[in-house]
Amino acid sequence: MKILITGGNNAKALKLLKAFPKHFVLLADYGDVPGMSTEYYAFKTLGILNKDSIAHILLNFCITESIDAIIPLNTFEVEPLAKSAVLFNEYGIEVLTPDADSINTYLSDDKNFSQNFAVFIKGECIFASGQEIFIKKDDSFSGVFGYNSPDDDLKLFTA
pTM of the prediction? Predict the structure, then answer.
């Protein structure tokens, strides 16, 4: 499986690498990006930032790079991708965000509120950095969520 994590120049993107040890991860960002590649991950540029066409830029990139799943770390990407998830799915690309209808519930103004993160795909927690075990959630619940303790309200892990 090939996973795209946007906001690749951010330390949070590097933290997410440990959640996907058996997959190839492409860390991408807008503008200048270090030209580094390993067996398990690589960095790549998404070109010049144009917030008016985020979903189009990312869909094009995902198709060109044969991406299977995308995790948006930039806050400005989350809502456009959630609204475009059906289109991405038509190309076999899983958008790891909550449903567009509930996205605002999971956004936080504090980007440094969480010490831990958990990755959910279709309601199933596949990784928790704090080693907690989360109960299965609704099948529409996907994304990377930050938390300090398991009892916290989960908020999107964004940069």
Answer: 0.93
